[in-house]
Each structure stands twice: as structure tokens, then as C-alpha cells.
């Protein structure tokens, strides 16, 4: 059972694949809760959506390979650039010229890199437990 049903849901097609999205609330600011990995669908945000939707327009989407989105078989279809393209395709589909991106783990890395590459589309980032390997490995530390 959901604490809040979506106000809008649908698919955006990109590169021959359908990406499922949902929209909750109608606030002036759009917040996109990004997927973490292809193995987790958008419902992992179910505890945050009801509260945030009281104040913002909240968008979630299932990543390629999970939930109600298509499941490509070519590993290249899961590249970071494809995630970023899907993110902005969903934003375009719901009419969000700009948004605050929220990401957990790998989703935080995607949010940060998307913001760096497209600052005109991203007004802020909340990076939770970011999986962000920004520095080269340190052999003396064993990493």
C-alpha cells in the first residue's frame, strides 16, 4: 500500500527504450528523486515522497532494467551517459525545465555529474551517501 498515489504517471521513450516515471504534488519547485542502481526501482523512495510532495512537485523514475522501465540486454545501454539522458528525457516529458536532484549512493554520483554537465537544468543536489570515486586509487592504503 502506498502512502500517496501519483498525480501523473507514464512513459518516455528514449533510444528505443521506455522509461517509467511518476509525478507527485504540484509545488513550484521540482525535486527529482533519482534511481540508485539498475537493480532498484523508484519505490525505494516511498517513505520520502509523501512528505516532499506536500511542498514540492516530486518526480521519480524507474531506471533501465528495473520496475516498469524496459530492460536492455546490451551493457552499453546502462552507461552513465544513458542514465543522464533518461533523467533529462523524464524532466522534459513532465515539463521540468529545472529541478533539484536527490540521489542515494550511485544515484548521488549521477546527480552530481548531471549537475556539473548541465548546470542550467539543475538548481541543487542533495547527495546522500554518495558513491563518488573522484580521486585516483591510493595503493599505500590498499584502495
Topology overview:
Layout: E1 8-14, E2 17-24, E3 30-33, H1 49-53, E4 57-61, H2 80-93, E5 99-104, H3 106-117, E6 122-128
Parallel strand pairs: 3-4, 3-5, 5-6
Antiparallel strand pairs: 1-2, 2-4
Explained architecture:
The structure is a single chain. This protein has 143 residues and is α/β, with parallel strands linked by helices. Helices cover 22% and strands 26% of the residues. It is built from 3 helices and 6 strands; from the N terminus they run E-E-E-H-E-H-E-H-E. It has helices at 49-53, 80-93, 106-117, and strands at 8-14, 17-24, 30-33, 57-61, 99-104, 122-128. It has a 6-stranded mixed sheet. Strand 1 (8-14) and strand 2 (17-24) form a beta hairpin. The radius of gyration is 15 Å and the shape is globular. The mean pLDDT is 92.
Briefly, what is this?
The chain has 143 residues and is α/β, with parallel strands linked by helices. It contains three helices and six strands.
Rounded average pLDDT: 92
Number of beta strands = 6
Q: Which stretches of 5+ consecutive residues score pLDDT under 50?
A: none
Q: Reading side by side through the largest sheet, how are the strands ordered?
A: 1-2-4-3-5-6
What characterizes the major β-sheet?
Answer: 6 strands, mixed
Number of helices: 3
Element-level helix/strand string: EEEHEHEHE
Radius of gyration over alpha carbons?
15 Å
Percent range for β-strand residues: 25-35%
Overall geometric form: globular
Structural class: alpha/beta
Helix content: 10-25%
Termini Cα gap: 42 Å
